[in-house]
């Protein structure tokens, strides 16, 4: 191995989005607006749930934590991307890159686990309505949320520690707008077989296990509805599960496209990552507010209070 490959880098260079130089200002304004919409929209969801006692239910308890996780997920990547677009400086310190990676894995995993918890909540509400209060008690909800954060912390720390043992040498150009794990692994001049093994086994298990819970919950819900079909039951199931299903399709659809159907990181994969890290957190408040009657009523009540 050459001497320069045995040294470790002090910083990385983020190439960012494949945007023509003359359009940097337009895209900066666009992504700044999307980020502010994400933060303000999700903060509004959290505020409404805290202020309206009718929203103090398990489903909205999970939703408030999902909104917090979405704010955090966007805040890990978007501000740095905006700063790089505005200043033209593409460098990020090694420690900053590792920290960004850790928190990105953390909050992306929290989203994954919370969506599974919300799917189980909808399953109990529709398939076992008479036992809903007994099953989805406060203790269980707190346990599921706390377990989501703890599992996500361990998962993120595990992959971060496996990464910091690697050497990068003179290879420090990241063809992405944030420090993404698979891109960093390709830059390393060390043996990454252990990292890849853990990524595909432990990482795959923690991705597909919540996904299987989501799919299993909705298969059971669909079976119950189709067993005794009625317009009223279909309408109730759609109003109850429609928002969550929309978020599930957005989250798992874009995540699957990024991590399972990309052979090499090109412009299409970076655009899919934008959908996964920027667009989906921004759309969640709109999905839950436009499709959810309780959120609409809470918002109207809040607006009326302000007017009064």
UniProtKB/TrEMBL annotation:
The keyword Membrane applies. It is a multi-pass membrane protein. The chain crosses the membrane at residues 26-48, 60-81, 101-120, 140-158, 205-226, 238-261, 273-290. GO terms for molecular function: G protein-coupled receptor activity; olfactory receptor activity. Keywords: Cell membrane, G-protein coupled receptor, Membrane, Olfaction, Receptor, Sensory transduction, Transducer, Transmembrane, Transmembrane helix. It is found in: Cell membrane. Gene3D superfamilies: Rhodopsin 7-helix transmembrane proteins (1.20.1070.10). SUPFAM superfamilies: Family A G protein-coupled receptor-like. Pfam families: 7tm_4 (PF13853). Residues 41-288 form the G-protein coupled receptors family 1 profile domain. GO terms for cellular component: plasma membrane. Putative odorant or sperm cell receptor. Belongs to the G-protein coupled receptor 1 family. This is Olfactory receptor. It comes from Myotis brandtii (Brandt's bat). The lineage of its organism: Eukaryota, Metazoa, Chordata, Craniata, Vertebrata.
């Amino acid at each position: 191995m050459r001497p320069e490959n045995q040294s470790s880098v002090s910083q990385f260079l983020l190439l960012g989005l494949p945007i023509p130089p003359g359009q940097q200002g337009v895209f900066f304004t666009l992504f700044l607006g999307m980020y502010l919409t994400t933060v303000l929209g999700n903060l509004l969801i959290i505020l409404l749930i805290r202020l309206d006692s009718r929203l103090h239910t398990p489903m909205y308890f999970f939703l408030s934590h999902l909104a917090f996780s979405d704010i955090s997920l966007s805040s890990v990547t978007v501000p740095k991307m905006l700063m790089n677009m505005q200043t033209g400086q593409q460098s990020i310190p090694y420690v900053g890159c590792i920290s960004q990676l850790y928190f990105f894995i953390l909050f992306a995993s929290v989203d994954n686990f919370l969506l599974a918890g919300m799917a189980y909540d909808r399953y109990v509400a529709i398939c076992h309505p008479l036992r809903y209060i007994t099953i989805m008690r406060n203790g269980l909800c707190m346990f599921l949320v706390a377990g989501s954060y703890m599992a996500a912390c361990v998962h993120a720390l595990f992959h971060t520690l496996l990464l910091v043992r690697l050497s990068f040498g003179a290879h420090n150009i990241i063809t992405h707008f944030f420090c993404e794990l698979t891109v960093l692994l390709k830059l390393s001049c060390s043996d990454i077989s252990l990292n890849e093994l853990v990524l595909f086994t432990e990482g795959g298990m923690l991705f597909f296990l919540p996904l299987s819970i989501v799919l299993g919950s909705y298969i059971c819900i669909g079976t119950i509805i189709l067993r005794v079909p009625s317009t009223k039951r279909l309408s109730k199931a759609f109003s109850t599960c429609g928002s969550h299903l929309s978020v599930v399709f957005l989250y798992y659809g874009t995540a699957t496209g990024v991590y399972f159907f990309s052979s090499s990181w090109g412009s299409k994969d970076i655009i899919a990552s934008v959908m996964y890290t920027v667009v989906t957190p921004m759309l969640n408040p709109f999905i839950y507010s436009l499709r959810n009657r309780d959120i609409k009523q809470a918002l109207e009540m809040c607006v009326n209070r302000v007017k009064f």
